[in-house]
Amino acid sequence: MGGDEIDYIHEAFDTNWIAPLGANVDGFEKDLESYTGRAHAAVVTSGTAALHLALLLCGVERDDEVICQSLTFAASANPIRYLGANPVFIDSEAETWNMDPELLEQAIIDRIEKNKGKPKAIILVHLYGMPAKVGSIARIASKYGIPVIEDAAEALGSSVRGRMCGTIGKLSVLSFNGNKIITTSGGGALLSDEEDLINKARFLSTQARDNAPHYQHSELGYNYRMSNIIAGIGRGQIKVINDRVRKRRSNHEYYFRELDGTWLDPEDRYPVDDIGFKTKNSPGGIYFLKEPEHYYSNRWLTTILVNPNQTGGITRENLRLALEDQNIESRPLWKPMHLQPLYRDFPYYGRGISDEVFKYGLCLPSGSNLRDQDLLRVVTTIKKVLRLSSRRLSKSGMRS
Ligand SMILES: *Cc1c(COP(=O)(O)O)cnc(C)c1O
């Protein structure tokens, strides 16, 4: 926490606004509008709820198709199913690990040719804080007249050419879940330039009560509005967002430097066999994702690809287990939706990038509260495993 959160919570208690409305709810919405530069924001109970509302506002109905990035957290796709609609999954490109614009266009054309109708929306994700290829995606979306829903749950503080994530889609989604870059313990927001959409979101998220003295409903509503207590935490948190981004980026820089990182070359990265991926680079074997020019990532999580071809056979799983031995938690990257038991029967357009990223990728400890000695402990553990294997390698080299 930043420090001011508790004051806003006290204010809610002192004024007795213990409800899903009040000064903190209004204030947090204003804070988000001014931080992102977006005209309108509605705060809700979660990012998932915000995505559900976004799809409703795009008119998604049963049996419609909605395009969604495959490499993401399941919460990006699940709300499509809440509405009885069907996801069409798209692979990532190699430069940002987000939706591949070429495959997106192929998929749209193919769905139309197959008489599935035009997809109703495109759910674009900025994975781990790295902005997607928003320019190309927006051009394709507008060419076919399909609205973009921007899942910026992991990307508050990131930007492309100075434009903040959260301002890019027709509707944009933020999350303040416990693991996100700022948190309200749980919470989310829906943002748009269109005031009527955000007003409608507020209406739907408070049970869709018609304007009448009694309780009257003509539409199906939801109980999705953020509480005034939770919004108080958000008001305190938004004050420290820039510190959080600085810290996450400095974690990333530290890991890159201390692990002798190599920047991934998008050209190099198609999987060739079971023991690693092909690359022009020789040393190290620990790869990091570079920010394309004019891209700014909040580096929410530091992610690496481990190439066993170059680490003496050490895989990301070896590193994960070695870290776990030291009571340090690390995790594989998101398992793509097209590989999930829940989603493997839905259409998928891909060429193996997200599979590869999942296979070789590891998320390193990336919290904003990591101390220098914590970071040192992580890299020391990783280096030890890598050194052992290079010694083994050079020994076997001598023997042959
Ligand atoms: C966290 C997350 C969500 C869901 O947000 P919640 O607030 O946890 O419901 C959606 N999409 C992505 C990419 C996320 O990381």
TrEMBL record:
<comment type="similarity">
    <text>Belongs to the DegT/DnrJ/EryC1 family.</text>
</comment>
<feature type="modified residue" description="N6-(pyridoxal phosphate)lysine">
    <location>
        <position position="180"/>
    </location>
</feature>
<keyword id="KW-0663">Pyridoxal phosphate</keyword>
<dbReference type="InterPro" id="IPR015424">
    <property type="entry name" value="PyrdxlP-dep_Trfase"/>
</dbReference>
<dbReference type="Pfam" id="PF01041">
    <property type="entry name" value="DegT_DnrJ_EryC1"/>
</dbReference>
<protein>
    <submittedName>
        <fullName>dTDP-4-amino-4,6-dideoxygalactose transaminase</fullName>
    </submittedName>
</protein>
<dbReference type="GO" id="GO:0030170">
    <property type="term" value="F:pyridoxal phosphate binding"/>
</dbReference>
<dbReference type="GO" id="GO:0000271">
    <property type="term" value="P:polysaccharide biosynthetic process"/>
</dbReference>
<dbReference type="InterPro" id="IPR000653">
    <property type="entry name" value="DegT/StrS_aminotransferase"/>
</dbReference>
<feature type="active site" description="Proton acceptor">
    <location>
        <position position="180"/>
    </location>
</feature>
<dbReference type="GO" id="GO:0008483">
    <property type="term" value="F:transaminase activity"/>
</dbReference>
<dbReference type="InterPro" id="IPR015422">
    <property type="entry name" value="PyrdxlP-dep_Trfase_small"/>
</dbReference>
<dbReference type="InterPro" id="IPR015421">
    <property type="entry name" value="PyrdxlP-dep_Trfase_major"/>
</dbReference>
